[in-house]
Structure formats: structure tokens, C-alpha cells
Amino acid sequence: MADRYAHLRASLGDELLAKVQAAKLLVVGAGGIGCELLKNLVLTGFLNIHVVDLDIIDVSNLNRQFLFRQEHVGMSKSQVAAAAVKVFNPDATIVAHHGNVKSPEFGLNFVAQFDLVLNALDNVDARRHVNRLCLAKDKPLIESGTTGYLGQVTVIRKGETECYECQPKPTQKSYPICTIRSTPDKPVHCVVWAKELFRLLFGRAEDSMLYEDPAGDEPSAYMATVTARPEASADAITAYAAAVLVAQFETEVAKRIGMDVYKGAKRLPEAVAGGALRALAAEYAQAPSRVARKAGWDRDVWGVEESAREFSACLHDVYSSAALREHVGSMEFDKDDKIAMRFVTAACNLRSVVFHIPLQSYHDAKGIAGNIIAAIATTNAIIAGLQVLEALKIMRAAKPIREACNYVWCLREGTRKGLLLQPTALEPPSKGCFVCGTRTVDVHLDTAALTFGEFVSRVLKSRLGVNEPSVSVGSSLIYEEGEDAAQGLRANLPKRLRDLPGGGVTDGTSLSVEDFSQDLDVTVCVYHRVFDEEEVPDGFVVGGQMPVASAAKPSAEPPSAETGTNGAPAAAAAAAAAAVPAAAAAAAPTAQPAKRGREDGGSEEPPSKRAAATVATAVDTTGGDDDDDVICVGDD
Amino acid sequence: MAAADPSSDALNDQESELYDRQIRLWGVQAQKRMSSSKVLYAGFTGVCAEAAKNLVLAGIHATIQDHRAATYADLGTNFFLTAEDVGKNRAASCQARLQQLNNLAKVDAEERSLEELEDAYFKQFTCICLSGAPLHQQKRIDGICRSAGVFLYVVESFGFYGYLMLDLGQGFSYRKELGENKGLSDPIPVAFPSIEEAVGAPWSTLKNRWGPVSKVYALAQLMLEFEEKHGRRPGASDGDTMTSVAQQCLKRNGLPTDFIASDETAVLCAQAQVEINPVCAVLGGILGQEVIKALSQKGTPAHNVFLFDGTTSEGKVMLTPPAAK
């Protein structure tokens, strides 16, 4: 019979094709991999598919997310994708859900209806959540990721294979506050600083790492200037721009040099002359963005003069526009907002000049500031094709999943055997996994410094991926979230861990953490430890084993005085220096996949000042702006 | 259509925005080269549809050639076709839908058959992806490509298997990416054998330290051999004929006659004219990647055959004829 399934029937056989056509699938993500995957699935005879995605279509998606066109920009990815693939196979029923897979409507009961779940995600956070849902409901999960030319596919099945969390995932890179504020030595430090300056000038200033309390002991070199917002007149704006430029790039720099912050540094920072900055602020009409832009302008690198003019031009753009100035004090940085990105590029380069750091073009600064990950159609197509091949093996059900399926790498350069696509055996579950194994995890932190709110948002949610935690010590519940949660327990959030009720959380305390939305029940063992901020900017280390390095190398370099740390005790500092933060482990050239995660914006507790600094500092080097994902290294 | 200005060494704002995520991977110069290149997809099979999708999205102009009419079975892999196109020319039916993927890349259709197209026709392209063509056509077009400096990719997807043979000519060179911030290697020359030389190498010489010649390679060559003898690709009822073709081939190539079992030749017959989408997606992705490597001259190209086995998901590169020791 010559129909659209003729080839499939010949290749799969009637029995397998019937299983495929009857199966009910969940696809999580309709971005780079998701578009390809949905197409592949309906062409392979899968007729019953739900797809969840919270994103809307952006123009930068169109080079690879082939279900989307220019006229779809701004529309829901899941809805447009569902309609598009329906054309490829009108027999298919595609149900589109525009929403976050972590929200309650896509919880355990939702997942229970499917035979198979396929991830096409771009962040670790959602992957962890779907992993837990699939473990809880015993659904096979086909996981995927791509970054540039590289990608991988794997299959997860409760009790048979490693789960997504059996191998630790590299976490977001955080930078110590003092590196950003005083001792930058990489372009990324200047980009982070520029984003913080953006927040100070246009956003919630008190959340900026550069915010200095006007009531503090030391007079600030710039706060009074920054907060003296100008009227809408051009002269007033120019005067404001000049004052801010001088305060940031002359006065503040000179002040830090005067404080001997850079004693012992190879090269002192150099302040920019205030007179020149004032003159340049007035030349905003000659800013690079104002003069006729030629093709490729975003690859040009602005020096001091262009950057200072551009800096001023951005302030003019904001303050001379009634619509924009209204939002001063509440703006959020967005890499796709041209004014914000011009400002960050200009400020980054002025900062870089001061600290003798290479300057960045608008294009490159945008890549750093937005943590943009290169992404192409070919890799996504390959990975999505491999996912469907694994799906067919699961449908065939000839063997247990761990025997039938593979972990497959897509590589840029062939292995010694010439493999560009390299299948490897699936690993059994890791016994120590806190999600699918022991259900126990150790956390080392300073119980005297960390508040319970920070612990909930940064340790439980951001790092451990708990969605709606309920926390108990012994038999007493100290916190819960979700429907019908006891609101009175929120009073515990501002308390230091050791001041919590029931004797507090101190060295050796076990917390019981449950999340009903993920069917997760974990014991978190807390160990008291004071870390040096330079070495462990997060302020905590998660893991059953403290790094071996601390025993082997007891005297790692002590933090140098010029970094301006607050004098951590020498012993603790040395120990902390030897601790291997997750980010460092991530950089190690192992054959493990390195997944990346979006900057987490999901915590509902306003982070404390210190937490804000660390979280805000995270230029999510492990997180991408949209779709796709992963960094992988492989060898045979 | 707003075509790229090839004389300028910069991209305009529209190109910059649209191609942002890929330019961050291969750079502005490679994008300029790609935007001024044109690929012929000769035989618009499922695997070519996948490759064309990938490369038109990347900004490379396309001509899709096919003289055949679309069938219902084609709808299973060629997603540019709909039921209304059945009975109509495949290339003409797909042209508009492929064009919709990117208005910065020009998409043309060519309905004449390969036999009807003169040698000169093929010389206008930067690359040719040839699919579903008999071996003698492969050799003919390869001869033209080698003399005109056109890159040739012969691609076949049959059942769970995929086959890709490249001829980038004798004077090709590329640069290897040396890792982040380390830039590129000096140019590395790599000479490709012709299709004739490649398929002429006895299979017994294609073994290496990891084993004998790839079975996927042998099956692909058997399929082409059958086609040369019988004027068509094998079908499900050709099992016996194929067994005798296989016996002759194996003997001629210095391999034991049980190297390919009769049930394997039966599967080959049943699958030779069958394409399934996941294999097309993987192979079309690899083909796209290889075209991008060649146009950007970055990254080691597959030298000169890539073989995919969809039952194991293994995809590997082999060289035929083998390098002289």
C-alpha cells in the first residue's frame, strides 16, 4: 500500500509501526533541538505528541529553528511549532502547551499519561526537574543537548541507567565581588562590572554590586553623583554623564589606588583624565551609534574616546525619552536591548582601559554579557535524529533499555577510529546519587553566616534543583512551599542557619528536604565550614567528598592582601583555597558531558545583599540565552 | 531578495542578526563565503531535503534538481512535500517551501534529469550533493566536478544505513581549530581520490587495526553494483539475484563469501529504496556539516567516506583507497 508510511512499514515492520503510532509522547522544548525533533517524530509515525515550551520566538532563532519565520517573531514556540509539524503529517495530533515545565500543571499527574518523554531543553534546571518527574513516574526519558558542533543523546530509565543527576553537573560560574569591584583581569570581569553599573544607574540600585550605602562608614566616591538624576534638558544630561564618567573612571580609580589596594600588582590601573571625559561627554552626537553606521559596525572596537561618547549618548537616549526615563530605577539588563548593550559595551571598554584589559566589540561584549552559545541547524538535526533512533529502540522493547539504548556523542573531530558519532554503553545508576540513589547529600557552609533564606534559594533551589521544598529538622517542620503551605514558617527565612528553631542547624545537622511536586525526599547533611570568598564565591560546597587536593596541598596560596577580603582566618582560607569549586571541576578536560544551566531567576526570596552580589555576578557562563545546549568532550 | 554584497567584507544588519548564532561559531569570513556559494541538490530525496534545510538556513543558495514525480511514500521523509504534490515534479513542488526558510538564500528548481543536463551545467555550483544516482552518473559528474573545482558529495540513505562519499578534489586544504583562543592551524592539504578510484579499491584492502571493511560500505557498494547490472535499485523480491551479485562481488574483492550473509542481502533488498526520517536527519546533518567545513575550510573533512549505522548510531569515517603505507 503506497501511503506516507510505506517506507516506515518496510523498515520497521507492521508491529513496531503500530506501537509507534499508538505511543503517547511528551516533548519538552520547542527550540533548536525541539523543532527538529518534532519534525522527525511525526515523519517517523509518532502521532500523539504533547509539547511544552515557555519561550517566544526571537529573530536569532531563525537561522536554525526552521519551523519559525520572520512573521512568527514574538509568538509562542510550542504553538507555532505544533501547527507547522501538523502540516508534515496531518495524521498527527500535537498538543501545544505554552508554559514552564516546572509549573504545577505539568507535574506528576501530567507526566503519568505518557509512554515516553523526550527532552529538547537548554538549561540544567528544567532537565533536573523533568528527570525527577520521569523517575517518579517510571517513564523512559531521552535526554539531549548541543553546543556549536557538539552534542549528545542519552537515555534514562529508573533503576536501569544513570539518571540525569548521577554525574555532577558543572554549575554557574560566580566571580568574587572584589575581583569585579577592584581587581578585574579578564574581559568578562569588565562586562560583569558594566552590567552592575547599568543596574546602579538604571535598575534597582541597591541590588547592584556597586551600590554603596550612603549611611556607611566610608564616603562613596560616586553614589551622590549617580543618584543626582538629571532633568530632560540636553545640558543637564551631558553634565550628569560627565559627572558619572569622572566619578567612575577617574575619582573612584584614584581612590582605590590611594587605598593601596593594588600593592604588589604587576601593573597599576590608570585613571582616565577627568578633563578628557568631560569633553567627550559633550560629544555624544559623535558617538559611534549616532554617526552613520556602516555594515559590520558591531565588530568595531571602541577606544576611550568612542566609548566615553557612547556612554554619554546612552544616558541622553534614556533621559531625553519620557517613556524610558520613567523606568529608571527598575530597568533590567537585556542583551537584546540596544541601548543597554551599547552602554555595557562602552562602560566595559572604559573599565578595560583603566585595567589594561583587551577591549571588546559590541558583538563580542554581547556574547559575553548574554552568555550566547553558538548554535547551528546541523548539530540539532543530527541530535534530534539520534533521539528518534533511541525512541524506536525503546518502542521495539526487544531488550531492557540499558542494553538496547546508547549514550551517543556527536563530535567535531573524529576519534582515533574515525568516529564522528560515537555510541557508548549506558551506565548503571550511581549508588551515591542523591536523586535516584542514597537520597543523601552533604553541604559544607558557614552556618553562622548563611541565612536560611539563602540556603533555600541558593543551595536547595539553585544548586540542588528542588522546586517546592519542605524542610524539617528532626520531627519539626521549619519551612514549606506550594499550595496550603504554612506561611508562618516564612519567619525562619531571615534567620541565620544556626539560629533556627530546635537548636539551630550547626555542624553535622541533618535536614529532611521533601518536594512533593518532584516526589523527592532527600536528607541534606550540613557541615560547618568557613570559606574564603575568593576561592569559593558561592560560599558553599556540595558533595559527599571534600576535595582530595586539600590533603595533598595544604598550603595553597593564601589570599593576597590587595584583594581586599575581609580577613578570613588563615586556616580556613587555606582549606578553602584548596577546595575545588564545581566550576573549576567543570573546566577540567574530562570525557564527561558538561551541561550548562540558565541563570536561575526562579527564587522567590529576595536574596540578601551578599547573595545578590554573587548571583548577580554570575555571568552565566554555564547558561545560554535560548534553546539548545551542552558542551561535550569525547575520546575513544 | 536582499542578496549579500559579496564585494563588502562585512555583513549587513539583517545578516548579522539572523546569522548571529552561527557567526559566533564560524566567523564573518566563512559566512561571507557561504553566502556567495551555491549548492546543487541533485535528486531531491529525503536525505537531500534534510541537508538542503540545514544549508539554506545557514545562508547558502540552493538549486534542487529532480525529474521524478512525488509519491505518497515520499511524504514520509521529504517534509517539503504535501499530499497535493503527489504526481507533480519533486523539485518544483519543494522550491517555494524551501525558499521560505531563508529569503537571503536563493532557491531554484531544475526539472530536467541528470542525463539531460550538459556537463557545463554542473560547473556553476560550488558543491553538488548527489542522491539516488547510479554509479555511472556519479562517476560522470565527479569527472566534471574534479576538472571544475566543484566539491562533490554522493549521499545515500537506505533503511537504517547511511552512506556519504566526498570528493573535494586533489587540491583541497583546510585549517584545524586548535581550541578556544588558540586560533587555527596552518593549512593542511588533503588530496581526495576520485569516485572511480574510491569504489575501485578492493574491499579486502579496506580493513584496519579495528576490523575488516565496514559492512555498511559493502552493502552500499552491493546496491550500486546491482543497479549497474540491472538498471534499477534492488527491491524486496530481488533476494536471489542479489545473493549471486554479492557472491561475485565478495570474490572479486578478496573477501570470504560468507562475509555478508543471505539474510543481510535480503534486508538490503527490502531497504534499498526505503528512506526513514531519523536516518535522513542524521545523515543530512552530517552532510550539511561537511559542506560547511569545506566552504569555511575549517575543521577536518570526512576523508573520504562517512558511514552511518542507525541500528547502533555509530557514524564513522573511512578512507578508500587506503593510504599508501
What structural class is derived from the secondary structure elements of chain A?
alpha/beta
CATH class of the largest domain in chain A: Alpha Beta
* CA-based shape of chain A: globular
| CATH homologous superfamily (4th level) name of the largest domain in chain A | NAD(P)-binding Rossmann-like Domain
Tally of alpha and pi helices of chain A:
22
Distance between the termini of chain A: 44 Å
Q: Order of strands side by side in the largest beta sheet of chain B?
A: 3-2-1-4-5-6-9-10
Overall number of domains of chain B: 2
So, CATH architecture of the largest domain in chain B? 3-Layer(aba) Sandwich
Helix content of chain A: 25-40%
Q: Give the strand content of chain B.
A: 15-25%
The CATH architecture of the largest domain in chain A would be 3-Layer(aba) Sandwich
Topology-level CATH name of the largest domain in chain A = Rossmann fold
Note the quaternary state here. Answer: heterodimer
Instruction: Count all strands of chain A and give the number.
Output: 14
Q: Please write the CATH class name of the largest domain in chain B.
A: Alpha Beta
- Rg of chain A, please? 26 Å
Please state roughly what percent of the residues of chain A sit in beta strands, choosing from under 5%, 5-15%, 15-25%, 25-35%, 35-45% or over 45%. 5-15%
CATH topology of the largest domain in chain B: Rossmann fold
What is the domain total for the residues of chain A? 3
Region (Disordered) (chain A): 578-636
Main location (chain A): nucleus
GO cellular component, one term (chain A): cytoplasm
Pfam families (chain A): ThiF, UAE_UbL, UBA_E1_SCCH
